[in-house]
Write a structure and sequence with these properties.
The complex is a heterodimer. Chain A is an alpha+beta fold. Chain A has four helices and six strands. Chain A has a six-stranded antiparallel β-sheet with strand order 1-2-3-4-6-5, covered by helices on one side. The relative contact order of chain A is 0.16. Chain B is an alpha/beta fold. Chain B is built from three helices and five strands; from the N terminus they run ββαβαβαβ. In chain B, helix 3 links the parallel strand 4 and strand 5. In chain B, helix 1 runs parallel beside helix 2. Chain B starts with a strand and ends with a strand. The chains are: A alpha+beta, B alpha/beta. Chains A and B meet through helix 3 and helix 4 of A and helix 2 and helix 3 of B.
């Protein structure tokens, strides 16, 4: 039987090239934090992305929060995979976890702000992703979320 | 983690960095301050990013203060976070300057 006190070996891996960064990490806040810091470092080295730093950082946080809350059964051994890639027109972030999957078909897509109680403590993560990105979609199983942003559209939030 | 100061009955909470998940530790740290203060101000000068969990913490603080007819104030809020608060219509509930 696995002794839960034994610290699991980090499964953290980073793979970057000029237009993308791919990270695999364990399902823990510590490794997720490391992922966010590495992505911030990547953004700051790329002039095109710098202007969208807030949206990318916010989006990444929301996606990884969902992966940790719902996609990992609180097991650090589970793996979260993230990829950020961009060209001159679009940036894309893909996040995949090992959970059972989010039943996105039951969620009303494109929620309007009028339908959200501003003083409700939770339930705003996906709304923020929709607001800060031009498109958001899931894979069939619901354990992979993708957001895309037109990076020429500077008037979008 | 946050620095907490009291000045003339006003509690000033200054988070040491971004307010992002997990926020449980910060929530615990400020809980009694929020419950026992006449006025609470979050000084956001060190905060570059706040996520939905952090927003939830501010809303929970606001809701707790509102029960006693008190208000939450945010100061030194950067442009991106101000815009985010407006997007979430929270500028109608929090005093932001």
């Amino acid at each position: 039987m696995l002794n839960k006190n034994i610290k699991l070996k980090s499964m953290y891996k980073v793979d970057t090239n000029e237009n993308s960064i791919k990270i695999q990490c364990g399902a823990s806040f510590e490794e997720a934090e490391r992922m966010c810091k590495d992505v911030n470092g990547f953004i700051r080295k790329n002039d095109i992305l710098k202007e969208y730093e807030f949206a990318i950082s916010l989006g990444l946080r929301e996606m990884v929060n969902n992966a940790l809350d719902y996609g990992s059964d609180s097991e650090e051994a589970n793996v979260i995979k993230m990829q950020l890639l961009y060209n001159n027109e679009k940036l894309k972030i893909v996040m995949k976890d090992e959970g059972q999957g989010f039943d996105w078909r039951k969620r009303q897509l494109k929620i309007e702000i009028e339908n959200i109680d501003p003083l409700e403590v939770g339930g705003k993560g996906l709304y923020l992703l929709e607001k800060y990105f031009d498109s958001m979609y899931f894979n069939d199983k619901g354990n992979q979320i993708t957001v895309e942003k037109n990076i020429q559209d500077k008037d979008k939030t | 983690m946050a620095t907490i100061n009291k000045e003339d009955g006003v509690t000033i909470i200054e988070p040491e960095g971004d307010i992002t998940a997990p926020v449980d530790e910060l929530k615990e740290e400020i809980k009694s301050e929020v419950e026992n203060s006449d006025q609470v101000v979050f000084d956001m000068k060190n905060v570059e990013l706040i996520d939905s969990k952090g927003i939830g913490l501010l809303i929970a603080s606001h809701n707790s203060l509102k029960k006693e007819d008190k208000k939450l104030r945010l100061k030194n809020v950067n442009e991106d976070i101000t815009k985010l608060m407006e997007t979430m219509r929270l500028d109608k509930h929090f005093e932001i300057n």
